[in-house]
Amino acid sequence: MSETPVKQQNTGAYYGQAVASFGIALAAVALGVYNLEVDGWVRAFLGIAALYLTTSAFTLAKVVRDRQEITQIVSRVDQARLEKMMAEYDPYAPKPHKP
Q: Helix, strand, coil proportions of the chain in percent (round to 5)?
């Protein structure tokens, strides 16, 4: 009757691929900004912008994950309350007499 979500585990290879992909992308952007034929302040601006974008992406990912975890916890609490009410309900119990 109740569905228990399956906890997903990432493999080591998937984790390694994600870390390597992030490192390669960050290095490529840094190398591209460094090799631009522009003034130093333009390179500095682009470098700071890339770092800001990166930290913002991490923050967004954390906020989305936290919101999802909170939703799952609330859902589990509500589900436990419903299961408790259903377990305690006896349809054959005598009903209280109202005067």
A: 75, 0, 25
